[in-house]
Write the structure tokens for this entry.
Amino acid sequence: MTNLGGRPSKFTPERRAAIVDDISKYVPYEIAAQANGISERRLYDWLELGRKDLEDDIDSDFSRFLQDIKEAEKKKIINNAKYIEDKEEKWQASGWLLERRHWKHFSNNAPLVELNRRLDELEKGKKDG
């Protein structure tokens, strides 16, 4: 895979696998990207391309990369939730990880985050319409 300028693409199977592996171990996206030789912005661009392909039902390297990251995150969420469920006395560390890594879903502010997301969508609709 090459870019228009003839340079090889950084979107290699090895780099993608390393980023997915890092993220599966709770490495923040920014650090996972930089540790694997790309900028955080480039990582988010790749993920956005994956989202667009998924929305358009396109099976691409970008959509599979996004799905691999989401699958890794899902497994960690399940593991932490299971640990919390099983350990009545020592669940706090797993709860802390969920609240910080997946704050949109597990923090006390999750309803407020969702409300703000919906307001942003409404405002965007007004601008586009």
Q: What stands out?
A: Residues 61-86 form the longest helix (26 residues). The helical segments are 13-24, 29-35, 40-55, 61-86, 92-101, 103-106, 110-128. Residues 50 and 61 are 8 Å apart (CA to CA).
